[in-house]
Amino acid sequence: MFYRVTSLLIFTFFSLTLNYYRLASQLDLCWGWDIISSRIISLTLWIIALICLCERRYIIKIQVIMLTLIVFFTTKNMWFFFIYFEFSIIPILLIVILKGYQPERLEAGIRLLLYTFTARTILFFSILNLCVKFNSWNFINITIVSWEIIILIIIAFLVKLPMWSMHMWLPKAHVEAPVGGSIILAAILLKLGVYGLYRLFLIGTPRYKSGVRLIITVGLIGMLVRAIMCFIRTDLKVLIAYSSVSHISPILLILINFNRISFTNVVILSLSHGFTSSLIFFTGNLVYINRKTRLLMAQKGNMLSNSLITLILFWRVIINLGVPPFFPFFSEVLMFIVIFIQRVRILPLIFIIVMLSGLYNTYLFIRIGFGKEKSINTKKINIKEIIIFFIHITPLVVIPFIF
User: Fold this and answer.
1) Which of 71, 108, 289, 374 could bond to 172 as cystine, CB 3.0-4.6 Å?
2) CA dihedral 275, 268, 157, 69 (to 10 degrees)
3) 44-64: pLDDT as tens digits
4) Torsion over CA of 63, 36, 191 and 327, rounded to 10 degrees?
5) Phi (first) and psi of residue 204, to 5 degrees
6) pTM for this one?
């Protein structure tokens, strides 16, 4: 089944590619990729393959998401960029609404629609203004000099990143989505905002830098607040969702510096977050199916009742803490170097946020692994889940030696 699905995906992708090239000369389209788009496409294909191993209930929606993201990350046409940027929300919306477990999934879908509709409207009129002004659809022929347009487009992309005050749709969507939907949201779809900001800063002029202090301030406050909120959450999946958003937030602070080393660090952080968040949500789902509850109070005593769960969670915490030789260690070291060189004033706050991240990861491990065991039936982990776990950690071990 898996090989047939993979063959179908490859066939469909190449069919679309040929049709896309055929239309290129007629519609002023441009096809190609650079270092960040090629790396994120590799991440997308890896994550999609893992989801196909974990979940088979929504293969068609996953196929649509994969094809949409490949075109989005490779097109240089602004209208295709906008269309696929927004169309990628439809499959994940269907996954949340149709495959979610709780009645609150409708509320999560409404939040997702409201936030993305607002961003969609802003982005649409901004792109329309640029296309009319420069009489071109191609990123290569456009240079943004208007401060107002830059701010509007940044706001549109920050909803997908997401930045604090624009993130309220994401934790709810994570809670109501099945494990495959959560992995897609955290590992892949959050990179849409990163890639959109990357494209914006390539065609924007350096003069916008003097006006981003407010965005940096709000981003730092959001990182600190989300890190603190992880200590008061009692729902395992909500805690993981907030920690995932807090983990990706430094990308905005680094990307906004607009230079080569910043872009390199953004690529590394994006890959690190993608592989790590996929592992985190997968192990979180193992903990959930072990006790059939997401409440941390009911997860105590796994060290005695299911030591394998505790061992897997231990390695998940070690990887997320950025311990060498795993990939997150190198991404965080480079992040500190970039911030030290370019924005040394915020380095103490970044250090505090990283320390809080380590504390709530340790707190999560202690709450789940130790304590008096609750009288709840547990489920043993099977061989397939162990194999998928090792597949998850493989790139986190291998990439530092080949990047």
Assistant:
1) 108
2) -50
3) 888 888 888 877 777 788 888
4) 100
5) -90, 150
6) 0.85
Q: Residues 160, 212: contact at Cβ < 8 Å?
A: no
- Kindly state the percentage of the chain with pLDDT values over 90: 0
Cβ atoms of 71 and 62 within 8 Å: the answer is no
Could you give the CA distance from residue 179 to residue 339 in angstroms, rounded to a whole number?
A: 34
Closest CA to 247 of 173, 187, 159: 187
Structure-token pair, residue 86:
């927004």
Range of the domain at 378: 212-403
CB-based contacts of 368, cutoff 8 Å, min separation 6:
287, 296, 299, 300, 302, 309, 310, 313
Number of domains in the chain: 2
Tens digit of each residue's pLDDT (9 = 90 or more) over 254-272: 877 667 777 888 888 888 8
Contact 218, 163 (CB under 8 A): yes
352 and 393 share one domain: yes
Q: How confident is the model at residue 124 (pLDDT cuts 50, 70, 90)?
A: confident
Which structure tokens are listed for 362?
A: 């340790």
What is the torsion angle, in degrees rounded to the nearest 10, for the CA atoms of residue 78, residue 84, residue 85 and residue 91?
Answer: 170
**Residue 64 and residue 204 in one domain:** yes
Whats the size of the chain, residue-wise? 403
**Which three-class secondary structure state does DSSP give residue 138?**
strand
Residues 220 and 205 in one domain: no
> Which residues have a Cβ under 8 Å from the Cβ of 181 and sit 6 or more positions away?
92, 95, 96, 99, 100, 173
